[in-house]
Amino acid sequence: MNRSMSFVLLLAILVSVADAAWEDAHATFYGDISGKETMQGACGYGDLFQQGYGLETAALSTALFNNGQTCGACFELTCVNSQWCKQNAGPIRITATNFCPPNYTPPVDIHWCNPPNKHFDLSMKMFTSIAEYKSGIVPVKFRRVKCQKRGGVRFEIKGNPNFIMVLVYNVGGAGDVNSVAIKGHKSSWISMQRNWGQNWNTGVGLVGQKLSFLVKTSDGRILTFYDVASESWGFGQTFEAKSNFY
């Protein structure tokens, strides 16, 4: 086989691999152009602007949400096979920050977030980046991509002296966290339980101790963030680590 034929074969293999990474779904939008209705949500995030997500977000259907375990994951979407797709729009990238619940009110076939449908309910800004507003719903291709976040992983501490709940956000790489452990400078490592979305909790009292965190993302990568919060940390505060997943 000559060099040019080898190159063509390699290119064909790469193209086929790339194509296999894309899956079929549909996309709609919720809220208005301000995105106010997209704040908060089932992943436990709050003000998405303050937390760095902005309006580049989506609520996922049951088939994608995975009981909140997909919160924080990033996806690339492109509008396909519709007269309503915007010309030369290119793909968009979003972070999963909410849940699009199923609706079993008849007729059920018009409720796009029902299982087993793979569906993205986008912010209006993101939907109108790839499709005309009046379309309402369009077919899309999607795939998981690495999250690119600015700064370090952030930890918002809530609760009370007997119950610590930590929101883990601004996570790069895979984006979706599937285990968290916490450590005070006087304690051993303590596994935290997923409360909801990306909120993790423990009943061990760690007030007055420096806090470190061990975080594992869905791709199996693990990072340890030492002494993220000083002994004087308080409930309602957010602390940013010096590193992130990439």
UniProtKB/TrEMBL annotation:
GO cellular component entries: membrane
Coiled-coil portions: none
CDD domains tied to this protein: DPBB_EXPA_N
Membrane topology: Peripheral membrane protein
Keyword Transmembrane helix: no
Places the protein is found: Secreted, Cell wall; Membrane
Record-annotated Expansin-like EG45 domain positions: 40-152
A Gene Ontology biological process term: cell wall organization
Keywords from the named record: Cell wall, Cell wall biogenesis/degradation, Membrane, Secreted, Signal
Keyword Nucleus: no
Secretion signal, residue range per the UniProt entry: 1-20
Domain Expansin-like CBD: 162-241
Chief site of localization: secreted
Source organism, top-level taxon: Eukaryota
Function (record text): Causes loosening and extension of plant cell walls by disrupting non-covalent bonding between cellulose microfibrils and matrix glucans. No enzymatic activity has been found.
Family membership: Belongs to the expansin family. Expansin A subfamily.
Name of the featured protein: Expansin
